[in-house]
């Protein structure tokens, strides 16, 4: 479903387990489960658990540290990227997985109602 290598998924899940966000059980009937109440952790917790990857594809570059153009661009944009990252991390900290789950359930309910209305109209 995720369209990625299973090793990548296992690595992500291991990071979530190490942070106490999920629990895994082996064997028949095993698998992954949420280990805590969804209101107890935020998108910031998940972000940290998956290794805190680079937030922006664009940003500070250091491929050619002696390049004057690269230095000028970095100097011009460093503050903007730092501010944007701080704002995004603040938002991550303010969004619980419980809030995401509630939003998902509402969207799912709305979608089912819409599908039922379409079938009713036929």
UniProtKB/TrEMBL annotation:
PROSITE patterns: HTH_RRF2_2 (PS51197). GO terms for cellular component: cytosol. One of its GO terms (molecular function) is DNA-binding transcription factor activity. InterPro entries: Tscrpt_reg_Rrf2 (IPR000944), WH-like_DNA-bd_sf (IPR036388), WH_DNA-bd_sf (IPR036390). Pfam families: Rrf2. PANTHER family: HTH-TYPE TRANSCRIPTIONAL REGULATOR YWGB-RELATED, WINGED HELIX-TURN-HELIX TRANSCRIPTIONAL REGULATOR, RRF2 FAMILY. This is Rrf2 family transcriptional regulator. It comes from Asticcacaulis benevestitus DSM 16100 = ATCC BAA-896.
